[in-house]
Amino acid sequence: MRICIIVLILVLGVDSFSAPQTYYLSKTKKNEVRSFLIRLATEKYHYSVTLTPIKNAVSVARLEVKGNEPLYAVEGGNKGACIDDFCLQTVSNLEEAHVDGAIYHRVASDFIRPLKLSVDVKSKISKDFNLVELTPPSAEDATEFVAILSGEKSTRGQNIKDRRTNENKKLAREYLRSEYEKMGYSIKEVAFSQGGYSGINLVAEKKGTEKGFVIVSAHYDTVNCPGADDDGSGIATSLLLAKSLSQSQLKHGIQFVAFDLEEVGLIGSRAYAKHLESQKQMENLLGVFQVEMTGYNPQNRNGIHVIDCEENTSADLSKLVIESIEENGLPLKRVKACTDRSDHAIFWSYNRPAIVVSQNFFGGDGNPCYHRKCDQQRELDHKYLAEIAHGILGAVAKIILP
Questions:
Q1: In this structure, are residues 31 and 48 in contact, taking their beta carbons and an 8 Å threshold?
Q2: Residue 300 and which of 26, 89, 153, 350 are 20 to 30 A apart at CA?
Q3: C-beta separation of 350 from 112 below 8 A
């Protein structure tokens, strides 16, 4: 989850003696730019990074980058070339910046061209849906899942100390594979390389009778900490939903995706989006429910974010989550927010409906152990985590069940 900064590294692919390259940050009305290196969103505007200025833009900022200097687009920044809360700037030392609280969103230099048609989510909703037939997520299961993911309990005689090193991430994937396979899902690992980084996304899938599908996603990597909340709670939420849906016959398919390398720049989600596009599956994607930190609930205030930034038809997904919360009598209270600071944002760039559901991170209830060694199981409210999962379950089920 992002605090106040989104950093997007553009892999320049040129040597240090190359002529300076000019990059442009353009603020436009939504959907006016059809090709870009990266695009961020607010509720009213798009902020696109391109190699040429955008005609009729509301505002344009430019930045010259020498040689192979790493380039970042920063949400909440104040250095470099800026428009509103977004800036283009180069940063030489990622480790020092990370210590200062930034989370980095790295993007390759390939251009994104969004799909022309968005999704009519409302037309996909089952008319005869009955959530009573599904077993609701439990706090007991949530506790077990987070305990193993954060290293409090062992899996196969080993503890996952953090999910930063390749060894520990492999152990986490093996645990996830075992859990999803027990539930009857097929598993695949999608390896990728980008900008000097290599990672593996894990996908648990169950197909439906029709070609459309939904993604429920969270990231499984961490910084140097146990990551119980960030984002062990999100992965646990995915497991809870998978368990509740495991015995159901599906009209539309579902993928539970554990993204790698979120913490070094949304690399895994961009790579997976590109994979879906290359496989011509992106057009069949009905919606993305990104789950980002769902366990911290100070003083039982029960605040949650359901974030869509009014991108394409994403608000229809938000409405389904809110309806599910109300229909199931869950004590959760929506706190409005808009952010690009999670793995949902890349799917907006492809014009796919996507939301991020999280605890009240931006509304005053941020976890003080965010990216710290104290991000442990004991800080979490597992009943609250299960209630958020229940709210998402009702929304997802309305789309994928017959």
A1: no
A2: 153
A3: yes
State CA 154 to chain mean position distance. 27
Structure tokens at 43: 């509720």
Q: Which amino acid is at 301?
A: R
Q: Is the peptide bond before 231 cis (omega within 30 degrees of 0)?
A: yes
User: Which pLDDT does position 110 carry in this prediction?
Assistant: 85
What are 354's strand-pairing partners? 288
The answer for residues whose C-beta is within 8 angstroms of residue 131's C-beta and 6 or more apart is 324, 327, 328, 393, 394, 397
Q: Which two tokens stand for residue 202?
A: 């894990």
Determine the residue type at 387: E
In contact, 74 and 91? CB cutoff 8 Å: no
Torsion over CA: 178, 188, 343, 207 (sign): negative
- The label of the residue with tokens 């459309």 reads 212
**Which SS3 state, helix, strand or coil, does residue 289 take?**
strand
Tokens 């968005």 belong to residue = 118
Give the model confidence (pLDDT) of 284-319 as tens digits: 999 999 999 999 999 999 999 999 999 999 999 999
Give the rounded distance of the alpha carbon of 223 from its chain centre.
16
User: Contact, 346 vs 269, CB < 8 A?
Assistant: yes
User: What is the per-residue pLDDT for 1?
Assistant: 55
Enumerate residues 6+ apart whose C-beta is below 8 A from 43: 309, 310, 338
What type of residue sits at position 114? P
